[in-house]
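Structural prep section.
Before we set up the soaks we want a predicted structure of the protein with zinc ion in place, mainly to decide which crystallisation condition to try first. Input record follows.
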Amino acid sequence: MKLTFAGTGSAFCTAADNFQSNMILETSNTETGQLARLLIDCGTDARHALHRLGLWPKDFEAIYVSHLHSDHIGGLEWIALSNYFIFHRHRIDLYVVNELIDPLWEHSLRGGLEVSDHGNSTLETYFNVKPLQPEGSFNWHDVNLEVLPVDHIVAKNGKMQSFALFGTTNSTRFFITTDAIFNPDAHMAYYRKADVIYQDCELGPRWSGVHAHYDQLKTLPDDIKAKMWLYHYPAYAKPDAVADGFCGFVTPGQSFDLA
Ligand SMILES: [Zn+2]
Ligand SMILES: [Zn+2]
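Run finished without errors. Recording the tokens verbatim:
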């Protein structure tokens, strides 16, 4: 099993060599033995990020959506229309927490996908929707993926959560934070039991308060930092993460063997 970062940038990253933080999980289909790919989030950059890796919308069996910011879902219209009209109605399993399904369609995708020359469409016209329970889990071939609600935006008038993933393969436990505030109390149990952590990390002078900032992550215990890779960073100069005890910053296109 392999995890590849199509990009490692933040939502607003404009670095010429980077794209938004979408990932590809690859393994063998347990029934056919063929290569199967799960796209973890599909942002507005996805068509460029995936093209750089030589991948097309038809090359995915499934997509997981962590939350509704456009760097995580902005490419779904492109995926849907490409697969429907260009790639012979190739259908993708869309794994998404049940409470996000309605807003994903009503507030993000319906405007571009509902009306077409084959009649009115719904999310199910384009995807096999696989509703997930928050704090539930699902098996995708030889990996079990736990869905973990994490706080992303905590504001006076409401809260937005993202749904992080904790994966377990035959040999590796990995934690992908997706987008989350710095919240060591809530995340420590997963930090501890993971063999490798992929942590969203903000850089630079402006602390948005909706992602963990590098300076906050530096305060984590050494044994946690020693298995932590940093991603979802903006185009600021990067500090020496290895000197600070981390594994480093994930580079665009980097792959990890999780078998
Ligand atoms: Zn994001
Ligand atoms: Zn976000």
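Observations: Residues 2-257 form a domain with the Metallo-beta-lactamase; Chain A fold (CATH 3.60.15.10).
Flagged for discussion at group meeting.
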